[in-house]
Amino acid sequence: MKAMKNLTSPALLAAVFSLFQGVPFAQSSTAGTSPFEFLELRYDARSIALGGASTALADDAYGIFSNPAAIAYAASPQAVVGYRSFDGVYGIPLAYIRPENDKGVFGIGVCGLTSGNISPTGIDNSGAAVSLGGNAYLDDYSLSLAWARKIGDFLSAGVTAKAIYELFNEDGAAVQTVDGSENGSTFGIALDAGCQARFMNSRLIYGFALRNLGGVLSGYDKGLPLPVEFAAGVSYVPASVPVLRLMIDADKERDNELTFEPGGEWEIIKNQLFARAGYSFSWSDLQALEDYLSGAGESGYTRNSMTGFCCGAGLKSAIAGRKVSFDAAVEFLTIAASPNISLSMLVEM
To answer: CA angle, 220 as apex, 215 and 226 as ends, to 5°?
Structure first.
């Protein structure tokens, strides 16, 4: 008992949190080699607040952006609008799904990120950041068409076809794209596929998803592979604590290391108010934690910039006879950077 108390002491937990939040970012060995890396992000505030766990959630219309199998359970048309920020860039995800009797559920979604006008910077001979002059912008967009259907009483499957477009443009800046031009665009297509198995009135959900299977058809990134990702997850509501849903996803993207995304959702007011939190971490984070607890220290350890602590809240209400869900999330990927804010609203028609 004494050993267990020491392992869960506030001082130790604070030290571990500081270890993961305060160290420098590390880019994976394949960072920058895949076009359309914005596809790796989550776009609904509920999933973001849960640390990215989304494969085994009853997300309905939000499933267009994570696991298309989730939309199969929608009983009525739904619309989604949101706001998503990430490291100084922002986007607005949109989605609409509609059940069609025994044909399944069909959906359309749009997501992406835009930098807005920025001043390009470079590194001089002394290693200092310098302005290159002029303005530039980078826009990424994805248009998704989804279909899903229930298979029997416990299983659903779905697919999403995506057209992806990236536009880079600069005005007067001394910057160039990979092919030597000052402006450029890239176009590609991708396919997502997923399934969900739900048991005990959806208290237990298993989910599997394959994301971004496709390639670049034209542009300066032609021939580069997309950030293909496989994800498996489970979510569960304990019978002894029916107001709590626990979940975890395990994601593996192409040549990158395995990432874990545990989270929890607490129902504060039944079917109305929810609190959420999650923490995504990589396999290297686990190894660093093991070294830290064994006294080896954190020398040479740098954390991946796509992982960190997240939290948020959700509110469900009836407005003008329609069920409306409002979700908000905050990502704390590092102490040194400003948190990322995301908002989502889902309306059942």
So the answer is: 25
Contact 301, 284 (CB under 8 A): yes
Tens of pLDDT, residue by residue over 279-297, are 998 888 887 777 777 776 6
Give the model's pLDDT for residue 174. 38
Whether the CB-CB separation of 264 and 244 falls below 8 Å is answered with: yes
Task: Pick 104 or 219 by higher pLDDT.
Answer: 104
Is pLDDT above 60 for 27?
Answer: no
Whether residue 251 has pLDDT greater than 60: yes
Please tell me the distance from the alpha carbon of residue 83 to that of residue 348, in angstroms, as a whole number.
Answer: 19
Question: Looking at this protein, which amino acid is placed at residue 303?
Answer: R
Take residue 72 and report the two structure tokens written for it: 């199969």
- Closest Cα to residue 59, out of 238, 242, 225, 245? 245
Compute the chain's Rg from CA coordinates: 21
Sequence length of the chain is: 349
Residue 275 to residues 73, 236, 267, 278, 315, Cα–Cα distance (Å): 23, 16, 7, 11, 9
Higher pLDDT among residues 170 and 56, named by residue: 56
Which pTM does this prediction carry?
A: 0.81
> Which tokens belong to 210?
């394959």
| Distance in angstroms (rounded) separating the CA atoms of residues 111 and 149 | 23
Tell me the fold of 15-121+130-348: Porin (2.40.160)
Q: In this predicted structure, what is the pLDDT of residue 80?
A: 97
Q: What tokens were used for 264?
A: 């929890």
- Helix ranges (H only) for 67-161 are none
Q: Give the alpha-carbon dihedral of 249, 251, 257, 261, to 10 degrees.
A: -30
Domain assignments of the chain as residue spans, ordered by start = 15-121+130-348
